[in-house]
Specification:
34% of the residues lie in helices and 11% in strands. The chain has 19 helices and 16 strands. Strands 11-16-15-14-12-13 form a 6-stranded mixed sheet, with helices on both faces. Strands 4-3-2-1-10 form a 5-stranded parallel sheet. It has a 3-stranded parallel sheet with strand order 5-6-9. By secondary structure, it is an alpha/beta fold.
Length: 620
């Protein structure tokens, strides 16, 4: 952390001093400068010179919005080019660069990628999550990124939802506790010598309560995260109705207000109390109104009752879903309490539309001033006016061993042991032979899941880290023979006392991960059966962003370890499999017996208990 920023934080400007600085800036700003501050543009849709021309307040990288080649140094150069352009404007108001750093600085090759939130929910360790926030902030600042769209404080109610792994738990209190912890860690002011970034609680509110639809959402589905306009998406990126894609995400939350408040609003109050400086609106609908236009919830409840003094930002093209008339979209969203609009492509159209709305009196100048005041206040709180460029020396620590140790700890604390017959675990390091099956055993991309280097994530050696197979080989005795087969097609003479199978979901994000059926596939079942035939004890490691339906296959297994989406540091799995550390993780979601027990309301109404209750987890 630089001396300038440290001294600014130690000074701790009073609210009155901040207000005076903001009012002074506002008094000098033209309408065009104010509207520019309310505009967030996708990095591939704007040139640095246009930042200065249109007074743009924020730039973001959507999922996969990476420089080429994707290196930390190139990330820093890309961000700094935009920032330097902002500083050339008349008032030299810095921009704030945003990314979806939802489990580490996960778009950057070489950065540490932590377990997704569902795994951190299994850890139930707020101190760990706060430390993860501090590491993530340092790696963000190394690339001069000052804003991350995290934490997600959704309370998911349906395991079929493609965002299920973004939720810490079905338990609102646990979600609030861990969301607040991440916000504190990202903020950094409570850490020794800490440096911080702007955290963003999302997606306001009750997106986790959206219900299943009988058909995909349609034209709005494939937008978030794409770096190409939606009409240009390839056929491979279109929703697959046979899988159930886009049949929950961005949907309707059919719950009463008492449930919304008790179950879904409480985590926001906790993150606000923890100092979160921004909130992102949800694509979802409640009480017949799109959340991006929900004046009651955004203005009256969030900014009024909850006392939120930060800025409210939209999701990707979120206002476009309000109305077929773009003018009405802009007016309704800003009047509802939106302060900054993630456009993300045609920023000229947004600015000119909002300018016309102000001229016509459809958006009051006082509302514009309030939005800009919130934006400037956030930038002042971050110290951007004193130090708009992140400390370059932090590049040395991006992806460093100390950061990876925190991720390794997170992996081992997130593991949940669901079955362990005949004391199959922990494993001996001196096994004479071991069979290992499954593509996920040797694939870091599958370990990381969605929101990892690219928006949807992908299989393969996508970034730096360790795979399950690598750490097993490093842990076992040199005399142990290891037979590995991605599909379980072992040699005819392959036979061992122990076999390990890594099952996995293919990576996904958002509505592309909505699934009608969570049962194991025929190929997964065949992999289990082939390996079972060749070993005395079968241990399954499940790489998944949610519980799967495994009831019928459970008798085939001697041990079942749920590893969720562990990220880049598989060493944490070996730590526990071989007994250096105990299993301590507990289920953050109830584990259903069948699809008939999904969503959570169906489970609660069922005559049968779930396969395992939320909070279940063996130790050994």
């Amino acid at each position: 952390m630089t001396a300038t920023v440290e001294s600014n934080r130690q000074r701790g400007m009073s609210d009155a001093e901040v207000a005076r600085k903001v009012d002074h800036l506002l008094s000098q700003m033209t309408l065009e400068e104010k509207l520019g501050q309310m505009t967030m543009v996708e990095n591939n849709s704007v040139e640095p010179a246009q930042i200065a021309e249109f007074f743009i307040g924020s730039v973001l990288s959507g999922g996969g919005g990476n420089p080429t080649p994707n290196t930390p140094e190139n990330w820093r150069a890309m961000v700094c080019a935009f920032q330097k352009a902002a500083l050339e404007t008349r008032l030299a108001i810095p921009l704030i660069y945003g990314v979806d750093a939802v489990h580490g600085h996960n778009n950057v090759k070489g950065a540490v990628i932590f377990p997704h939130n569902i795994g951190l929910g299994a850890s139930r360790d707020a101190d760990l999550v706060e430390r993860i926030g501090r590491v993530t902030a340092r790696e963000l600042l190394a690339t001069s990124v000052h804003w991350t769209f995290a934490p997600s404080v959704s309370v998911p109610q349906d395991l079929r939802w493609g965002r299920i792994y973004e939720g810490y738990s079905e338990d609102s209190k646990l979600v609030g506790d861990l969301g607040a912890a991440l916000a504190r860690g990202l903020d950094g002011r409570r850490a020794d010598g800490g440096s911080g970034v702007l955290a963003c609680a999302k997606h306001f509110v009750a997106d986790g309560a959206a219900g299943w639809r009988e058909s995909p959402i349609g034209e709005h589905a494939p937008q978030q995260g794409s770096t190409a306009p939606p009409q240009d998406l390839s056929p491979a990126a279109q929703p697959d109705a046979a899988l159930g894609q886009w049949q929950i995400d961005q949907g309707i939350s059919r719950i009463d207000e008492a449930t919304l408040r008790a179950q879904h609003l409480m985590p926001y109050q906790k993150t606000i109390d923890a100092g979160v400086g921004s909130v992102m609106a949800s694509y979802s609908t409640w009480d017949g109104i799109k959340m991006h236009a929900h004046r009651y919830l955004l203005k009256d409840v969030l900014k009024g009752e909850l006392g939120f003094a930060g800025l409210v930002v939209t999701d990707w093209m979120g206002i476009n879903q309000i109305n077929s008339d773009y003018y009405k979209c802009v007016v309704a969203s800003v009047n509802a309490g939106i302060d900054m609009v993630m456009v993300p492509y045609d920023f000229r159209s947004f600015i000119s539309t909002l300018k016309e709305a102000a001229r016509q009196g459809d958006v009051a100048r006082e509302r514009i001033d309030d939005a800009v005041r919130r934006i400037l206040r956030a930038k002042l709180a971050l110290g951007l006016f004193d130090q708009p460029i992140g400390d370059k020396s932090l590049l040395e620590s991006l992806g460093c061993a100390a950061h990876r140790q925190v991720a390794r700890e997170a992996v081992r604390k997130s593991l949940v042991l669901l079955k362990n017959d005949s004391q199959s675990l922990p494993l001996s390091r001196d096994l004479p032979r071991l069979l290992v099956g499954g593509r996920a055993a040797d694939d870091i991309g599958l370990q990381c899941g969605g929101w990892s280097i690219t928006w949807q994530g992908e299989a393969g050696a996508t970034t730096t880290g360790t795979t399950i197979l690598e750490v097993i080989r490093a842990t076992l005795s040199d005399s142990t023979a290891i037979d590995y087969s991605p599909d379980g097609q072992f040699a005819d003479d392959a036979r061992a006392a122990v076999g390990i199978v890594a099952l996995h979901e293919e990576p996904y994000a958002e509505g592309f991960g909505d699934r009608a059926d969570l049962a194991l596939s025929p190929d997964e079942i065949a992999l289990l059966q082939r390996t079972r035939e060749r070993c005395d004890q079968l241990i399954v490691v499940l790489i998944a962003g949610r519980p799967r339906i495994i009831t019928d296959q459970l008798p085939l297994l001697d041990a079942l370890v749920v590893a969720w989406l562990p990220g880049t540091e598989a060493d944490g799995l070996a730590d526990v499999l071989f007994g250096d550390f105990p299993f301590t993780g507990k289920l953050p979601f109830s584990w259903p017996r069948s699809m008939e027990q999904i969503p959570l309301a169906a489970l609660r109404a069922s005559d049968e208990a779930p396969l395992r209750e939320c909070g279940y987890g063996l130790t050994c």
